[in-house]
Specification:
Length: 218
């Protein structure tokens, strides 16, 4: 029994040895043929099979298309990014101007209401007979002085907040600042000159909030 097993192992060993020998001979023969081919045609490069060459070209074409597509998308995104930056800058400038205008002109409505108070004070001081403002009439004198002080203080407040009067007497008529109520011929005045100011106007930081009501020469 042991002899049979030994013979079997010996045969297997021989088969393995023969197989290794045949493989070695095949490899050697292949190497010799390859070397001979290289010696016969030393400048001839090995060419890949047609199937591999075709697949390689397909992959290259596919990659080129992907690169082109990515470049187009990159250009489009870059353009959108630049437009977004420009829009953001324009929006920031608009908001900055709106905030600045709100700070400057936020009191415009309040100023318009105070102009009526200024008009009343001005009319009150103008209506007081100047010849009666004497020490013999102390009550009227005190009242007049109080009105003048109040009017002066109100004008100082206006000036401090950028509200300035527009009194265009003897100036050239400007429709941006004046409103003509009538025209009349006045000797010695050129046409278009302001000859009468019925009510002075006001401007808030160069923005007219009430035009001056005037009469113009013709």
């Amino acid at each position: 029994m042991a002899l049979v097993k030994a013979r079997g192992l010996f045969r297997v060993s021989q088969l393995v040895t023969d197989t290794i020998t045949l493989n070695a001979r095949s490899i050697t023969l292949g190497s010799l043929r390859h070397t001979a081919a290289e010696q016969t045609n030393p400048n001839t490069d090995a060419q890949p099979p047609p199937q591999i060459d075709s697949k390689f070209k397909e992959e290259v074409d596919k990659l080129n298309k992907e690169v082109t597509s990515l470049n187009e998308k990159n250009t489009e995104l870059l353009d959108k990014y630049k437009r977004s930056l420009a829009d953001g800058e324009n929006l920031r400038n608009r908001l900055t101007k709106q905030i600045s205008d709100a700070k400057i002109f936020g009191i415009q409505g309040f100023c318009k209401d105070l102009l009526d108070v200024a008009d009343v004070l001005s009319k009150a001081t103008e209506s007081v007979p100047k010849e009666e403002i004497t020490d013999q009439n102390p009550h009227l004198k005190s009242l007049y002085e109080g009105l003048m002080m109040t009017e002066a203080q109100l004008q100082n407040v206006f000036k401090r907040h950028g509200l300035e009067p527009v009194d265009p007497l003897n100036e050239k008529f400007d429709p941006n600042f004046h409103e003509a109520l009538f025209q009349q011929e006045v000797e010695g005045k050129s046409p278009g000159s302001v000859v009468v100011v019925s009510k002075i106007g006001y401007k808030l930081h160069d923005r007219v909030i009430r035009p001056a009501l005037v009469g113009v020469s013709k």
